[in-house]
């Protein structure tokens, strides 16, 4: 099977799964609960102190589902919180009575869900005006991440102390790693979870996929190399911290920002978010085997700082792409894809200076379609537009690589012929004129044009050379059109 047909069959299957999930609310809830518990489990296994993990991606998933799905996700989330509490109890081997665990689970659920629900509502409100402004959206999201994760920390820890799940004094050691773990998990994973959930549960207003859906200009292998560079650097700095046991060595992990920024500026936002999630997960997973848990807080801050910088950087590739598109629009006439008027004048000025310096010959041809208004009036502007495109293509075919063809406005075109004498320019104009008469456009209409040629002298500016060619063009019109005049 060819690569293309494999791609199509995978896409077909994904579309079928997507439409099945979209139709079945219970399947959505079951999928979500399974995903939340897997993500919760991956965080719970990375504890810094009891109840506080180095990185808690479940916070990102809770926030994302509340943003995209809203209040309908509260019940499945509550179920997850209760199951998660029972699971945590079995991980720590605490053997708490089930009724007490149930109450603890409900209290955990209320604190966790309420905190992220407030943030999700606020982000939706803000995204109404900021979705197109990525730096502003990133700022709001980061502030909300810090505030929501702090609220979740305070409310969940208060609930756990109140229910007796943790001692009265131990929340003092727990609150900071708890908060930073939730913050890191949310800042890193919420954007990518929003993207995935919105694919299965399209949100009419909040469609972050507009940003994450951009097409890549680099190969996937190149992206993998960049990711491996980041992971390689992580292994080196962890090894350094493990061998030296010095805090200074742990701080070297902040250098991870460099490969991540390389990815952010050169890859799509989706790939950037994936590499950030991968790097953060790798940091959290490697802390135990490298025996550097004493620097857990440093690594938590590394994840937060890399995530925040990445989120701001997400705007850069979009800005570069917009800039490239705008540049294209400024340099080219959007209809005929010939040189735009402004760019034409710039380039003629340069060619003029060069011709004057080198004492070489330079000519201008100005041509205008005959009775073009008639085509517009009789067959409509779309037919007129197609006639303009055909005329430009026909002229391009008659020119050399070094000649410049531009649209000056309406149905008037300018050709710049460097290193060309007046006689040769007249011959070129004749060639275009003849070819134009052989062009048939919509409704069997044939085209013709009138041409003015001027040879540029040593003291000419663009305007003077253009005026002479334009006068020659009007003489050609006066003499009956479909001919070439020279001045
Ligand atoms: N379809 C289309 N028409 C355009 C565009 N720009 C200008 N025009 C039309 O082009 C026509 C230009 O007509 P003129 O060059 O003044 O006159 P003409 O009918 O060609 O007659 P002569 O030049 O005297 O032979 C006008 O009807 C404009 O509205 C465009 O981008 N698309």
From TrEMBL:
InterPro entries: Diguanylate_Cyclase, GGDEF_dom, MASE1, Nucleotide_cyclase, Rev_trsase/Diguanyl_cyclase
Predominant localisation class: membrane
Stored NCBIfam families: GGDEF
Intracellular or extracellular location(s): Cell membrane
This protein's name: diguanylate cyclase
Listed EC numbers: 2.7.7.65
Domain of life (superkingdom): Bacteria
GO cellular component: a single term: plasma membrane
TM annotation in the entry: 21-46, 52-70, 101-125, 137-163, 183-202, 223-243, 249-265, 272-290, 296-320
Source organism: Echinimonas agarilytica
Keyword set, alphabetical order: Cell membrane, Membrane, Transmembrane, Transmembrane helix
Residues of the GGDEF domain: 360-487
Cofactor(s) recorded in Swiss-Prot or TrEMBL: Mg(2+)
SUPFAM superfamilies: Nucleotide cyclase
Gene Ontology molecular function: diguanylate cyclase activity
